[in-house]
Amino acid sequence: MIRRRVVAGLTGAGGKLTIPVNKLLLSSIVPEVPADAGQEVFIALVHPCAFGGECLPQAQGQGEHRDKQRHRHPPWQSRPHEQVLLPDEADQAHARDDEADRCVDRHAREVAPSVGGLQSHEVAGQGDGGCGSRYRSDQATIWSPLNGSAMARLRFVVVGCGSIGRRHARLLSDRSDVALEICDIDADNLDRVVSEAGQVTTHSDFEAMLETRPDAVLIATPTGHHAAQTMAALASGAHVLCEKPMTDSLESARRVLAAARRSDRLLGIGFTLHFHPAMRRIREAIDSDRLGRILHVHWHVGSYITLMNSTSRYQARLEGALALDYAHQPDLIQWWLGDRPTAVFAAGVQGGDLELQSNPNVMALTIEYEASTVATIHLNYVQHPDRCSCEVVGDRGWISFDFHSGCFIQGDRATEARTQIEILPERDALYLAEHQCFLDAVSGAAAAESPPEEAIISMAVIEAALASWKKRQRVTVPPFD
Q: Measured between alpha carbons, how far is residue 426 from residues 175, 385, 401, 409, 449 in Å?
């Protein structure tokens, strides 16, 4: 069973943000404290390996179909490890707060704030008696324990304040390195975010907001707006994190990809399930060849609550919204396999005596891959309470996972062993890790997760699935590279 304990926090104007961390993995992610590192360091955010995922290198010699470049080491593996302040050390640490803060203030005044994002500067006087050992927030700069530098707070605008946008805004508002702003045409949506995230700058006009030249923009609007808003934000000079799916069509996804390649800004697509510890464990089991050759992957997603939570109700107007909303599934299969999808057969219906509808509201997809893997995906906007599960079958072993019970089962053919554990991360933890990964990429400390070159593959699968549903025949996956 995955056990969690609060062991990390972030100090700033809003107080301390606590984050769940897997206690069992602390020994692997927290090294011995260097003698000259100071006495007190808080983790700003915790990466997915701290929620139960393993950080294994890619196994070699697993077949030519495996893309050797797709498995990037998680960004935290190439960065200095943060130290962790445990709760039983808190009293002693708080006694040093005033001295540490005075030290941070002194260094921060020696460096002018940077312009245009997370531009780090070297600070004189580092290493004198624990200076630089804490994050501290003020109106201009923060102090980084990783490199002892002062940085401007990143102007980060969340565009679209529906259900997902509100979550992003609430979590980003707790970061001392982000100056949060929000944008929505609905004043009620803006008011709801302000009530949850505190007083933040608000915008009601997207184009006018871009004229203020924010550092980064998070697109959380209905799917049909993703392409135009992403391209406009990139053109304005902003880094962009766009919620999945990338766009509402493969054609528009190609335009977004071209715009991203022309731009010197970063574009990431928000596939938060990449940060789910169970999804990472599956990927690591595949990469390490513990499951052997993967022959079948199956997903089941039933989620009427998605329609209930949608403030815009765009699913009633956008044909094929079910497949687009659950771009997670073809994306994760691609992320696991690193194999090229070749063909899709899909069937779908709209039915049921339900208040909220989408066309179709039930779909079944069969996806073929070059390396002879077959994937099946069942999607519906009918089941309530919702259900989500997956299964991966290889010739050496298999894994099944249920998102609601947290039941993770792994079977091994050779030993006939069946291992069961529980993995139930807090949902906020996935978004926190996603934000940290994106900000690391913006600062140049790591590569982006889910870049457009990878995210467009799921768009090609969805395009083929919707064409197959309409034509009632098997459809070849269109080119995406």
A: 18, 18, 16, 20, 20
Q: What is the pLDDT of residues 285-309, one digit of tens each?
A: 999 999 999 999 999 999 999 999 9
**Residue 269: half-sphere exposure toward Cβ, Cα within 13 Å:** 26
Distance from C-alpha of 73 to C-alpha of 68, rounded to nearest angstrom: 12
What's the confidence (pLDDT) of residue 268? 98
The boundaries of every CATH 3.30.360.10 domain in the chain are: 274-476
pLDDT for position 151 = 57
Q: Determine the topology of domain 274-476 in CATH.
A: Dihydrodipicolinate Reductase; domain 2 (3.30.360)
CA end-to-end span of the chain: 41
Q: Where in the chain is the domain with CATH 3.40.50.720?
A: 154-270
How crowded is the C-beta side of 135, counted as CA atoms within 13 Å? 28
Other beta carbons within 10 Å of 309: 11
What is the spatial distance between Cα 246 and Cα 226, in angstroms, rounded to a whole number? Answer: 7
Q: Answer whether 344's CB lies under 8 Å from 374's CB.
A: no
State the DSSP string of 384-412. SS-EEEEEEEESSEEEEEETTT-EEEEEE
For residues 71 and 52, what is the distance between their CA atoms, to the nearest angstrom?
18
| Residues near 210 by beta carbon (within 8 Å), at least 6 away in sequence | 217, 232, 233, 236, 238
Distance between CA 326 and CA 362 in Å, rounded? 12
Beta bridge partners of 142: 137, 151
Do 440 and 430 contact (CB within 8 A), yes or no?
no
> What is the pTM for the complete model shown?
0.71
Residue 125 near residue 107, CB atoms below 8 Å: yes
pLDDT of residue 101: 39
Task: Indicate the average pLDDT of the chain.
Answer: 77
Torsion of CA 207, 213, 219, 225, to 10 degrees: 30
Query: Quick check: 105 pLDDT over 90?
Result: no
Q: Where are the beta strands (DSSP E) in 285-424?
A: 294-302, 341-349, 362-369, 374-380, 387-394, 397-402, 407-412, 418-422
Q: Are 247 and 222 in contact (CB under 8 A)?
A: no
Residue 312's pLDDT is 87
Q: Which CATH number describes the domain made up of 154-270?
A: 3.40.50.720
- Cα distance between residue 397 and residue 128, in whole Å: 54
CA distance 383 to 125: 60
